[in-house]
Design brief:
By secondary structure, this protein is mainly β. Helices cover about 10% and strands about 40% of the residues.
Length: about 650
């Protein structure tokens, strides 16, 4: 028995050693990860003592590519990036401004690569795109914050207004220029170290002035746009400025109502010139992860991705930097995805104080400019911000969309050839004849490049415009988000009139979200759920645009009346939602019905509750073109008779 016990003990010890070695091997591979084990720490480059980190980072990235290094680590700190020694690259960026762009992080043709900021703050100067990620795979960016020393917006506190003279005065701390009665944003790099080192010539080349435009007024008490903002709309032209003293500017212009004292005028510059510098530009890349990243400011979008696959944002926050005193984060969308496929995952993110939407997921139609022959079309981009965008390549599947009803008029077609003429015009050749199937100004949609999406556990607040714009036929799940935006919380649309954004929803689930006091801008009437394809003639259209939309188990706190406008949906479910009327603001459109169903089929409305302040029941209108609409007798929303 004693020998057996010793043998058993020996076997146990051997087994324990084997387990320990196995754990060590597993741990080693876990540490190595899928990216390998070659690491470059920027301490080796003495980056902590640099005045301009740009040339150091570019040198380090070149070293990583040449030597197969898989991970670049920053020692924790604050780093400044200037455009003087930045890499230059011409970029055609959809929904942004095209041009020659400078970047400190040219992630071009990188694979299996990690950039770890280790909690660092990256401060940019002038017109730069911090990260350009192109033709790369399996990239992770983590643990860093992006900001600009001089913002791309002018913010001025309203300190006086004169109703008789139709003027108001603003106190401005950010850089500005007043010339010949015009007010300009000034992004001159006044703090550039190259002023001291090399003289003013370098700095002078890297600044520009931008005439004020696209103005909106903010409320510093709520840190959001003013309630009923439309009352304070300013024209794009005809704004006269007079500098009374340094930092004090008198504005005279035509407005319905002068801004109240204590509000903040925000201007991002004249249209088609104010989207120069997104924080992240992603193009033709795959398997990307952005984790624990803060974008405090950018002169366009926080992240714009196109022609890419499988992108995850986890803790990618577009948020004000604490103590900055600023009102604005990004001057356009927090995030934007165009002609992306695979799955877009956005989770655990906070998006606040943007001058546009939290996210927009869509394709883009090109329009038929000319029919060349039975197989070939000349197509054009329409909106100037889409010039040069990559619509498709040989092998992609497309379909033609009727400009009047936004309905497919052809079976799916394969692109055999795409020949670019210039940034607006391309020739596309199909695998099948298209004779008598296409009209001038019809749209062509790339149905190969649409994304599925998961949007969960996010916060959207205090931004101009919408929370989520979703235009994709792939499966989308939106759940457990807390939303409060100036316009619609959700917009599902498509158009061939302005932005030409494509992709009707065909499998969308919106559930378990908390929506609070949205739609306070006064434009509209907007709706919290706005499903509205943009027909040429809203009174004369046919067919269904979207299919299979379910909105359930959401809590909706609202001061106004319009909750949902659903147009041209086949298979719509609105169920078990709790609507609570608040007194946060005075209703702007009190006479609009709560739910409006237009040209829909197979609609179910059931299990919803509505707690109004005056005890009234919810209102529901269903137009004559809608069919097979089922409303539960116990539902809070009661159908109103059609008006003659």
């Amino acid at each position: 028995m004693q020998v057996d016990s010793k043998n058993q003990l020996t076997k146990s010890r051997m087994l324990l050693n084997i387990i320990k070695k196995s754990i060590a091997i597993i741990t080693l591979f876990s540490v190595m990860g899928s990216y390998g084990q070659k690491v470059l720490n920027l301490e080796e480059f003495n980056i902590e003592n640099s005045e301009d980190a740009t040339p150091i980072v570019i040198e380090a990235l070149n070293k990583c590519k040449e030597e197969g290094i898989n991970k670049l680590i920053f020692p924790k700190g604050t780093y400044h990036f200037y455009p003087t020694f930045a890499t230059e690259r011409y970029c055609e960026i959809t929904n942004n401004d095209n041009g020659l762009k400078r970047t400190a992080f040219p992630i071009i043709d990188f694979h299996n690569f990690v950039i770890d900021g280790n909690g660092s703050d990256f401060i940019f100067h002038g017109k730069m795109i911090p990260f350009i990620i192109e033709e790369s795979t399996n990239i992770k960016v983590t643990n860093l914050s992006i900001d600009w020393k001089v913002p791309f917006v002018l913010e001025g506190l309203v300190v006086a207004n004169n109703f008789a003279n139709k003027t108001f005065d603003i106190q401005v701390n950010s850089p500005y220029v007043v010339q010949f009665g015009h007010l300009y944003l000034s992004l001159e790099r006044e703090d550039s170290p190259y002023e001291r080192k090399y003289g003013k010539r370098f700095a002078t080349m890297e600044h520009y002035n931008l005439e004020v435009g696209q103005n909106i007024f903010w409320d510093p008490k709520t840190m959001a746009p003013l309630y009923n903002t439309r009352l304070y709309n300013m024209p794009e032209k005809g704004i006269n400025a007079e500098e009374l003293e340094k930092g004090l500017i008198r504005i005279s212009t035509k407005m319905k109502k002068l801004p109240p004292l204590g509000s903040v005028m925000v201007s991002k510059g004249e249209y088609l010139k104010n989207r120069t510098s997104p924080a992240f530009r992603v193009f033709k890349s795959k398997d990307l992860e952005f984790k624990s990243v803060n974008v405090h400011h950018a002169g366009a979008m926080g992240l714009i991705a196109e022609r890419s696959e499988d992108i995850t944002l986890d803790g990618f926050n577009v948020v004000l930097k604490e103590g900055s005193g600023r009102m604005i984060t990004t001057t356009a969308d927090a995030t934007h995805f165009c002609n992306v496929k695979g799955t877009v995952t956005i989770k655990n993110c906070t998006f606040e104080n943007m001058l546009d939407d939290a996210t927009n997921i869509h394709g883009t139609y090109v329009r038929v400019n000319k029919i060349i022959d039975e197989y070939t079309l000349a197509v054009e981009t329409y909106h100037p911000h889409q010039n040069g965008y990559l619509f498709g390549e040989a092998g992609d599947m497309v379909q033609v969309i009727d400009q009047i009803n936004l309905q497919a008029t052809t079976e799916p077609l394969i692109l055999k050839k795409v020949e670019r003429v210039n940034e607006k015009i391309s020739y596309i050749t199909f695998d099948k004849p298209i004779t008598n199937k296409i009209n001038i100004y019809d749209g062509v949609e790339n149905i190969s490049w649409h994304a599925a999406a998961i949007l969960e556990n996010n916060v959207v607040r205090n931004n101009r415009a919408r929370s989520f714009l979703i235009s994709t036929p792939r499966k989308v799940v939106v759940r457990n988000n807390h939303l409060s935006s100036q316009m619609a919380s959700f917009r599902i649309t498509g158009d061939l009139g302005l932005w030409n954004e494509s992709g009707p929803c065909e499998d969308l689930l919106i559930e378990n979200n908390l929506i609070e006091n949205a739609v306070y801008g006064g434009n509209g009437p907007q709706s919290i759920f706005l499903i509205d394809p943009q027909y040429v003639d809203k009174n004369n259209f046919e067919g269904k645009y979207s299919r299979s939309i379910t909105i359930r188990n959401n809590t909706i706190k609202t001061f106004d009346s319009s909750i949902m406008l659903a147009m041209s949906v086949d298979n719509l479910v609105f169920e078990n939602n709790e609507i609570i009327q608040t007194n946060k603001y005075k209703p702007i459109f009190p006479n609009v019905d709560n739910l409006r169903i237009v040209n829909c089929n197979n609609v179910v409305i059931r299990g919803n509750t509505y707690k109004s302040l005056d005890g009234s029941i919810g209102s529901l209108t269903i137009d004559a073109k809608s069919t097979d609409v089922k409303v539960s007798k116990k539902d809070a929303f009661k159908r109103k008779p059609l008006k003659n």
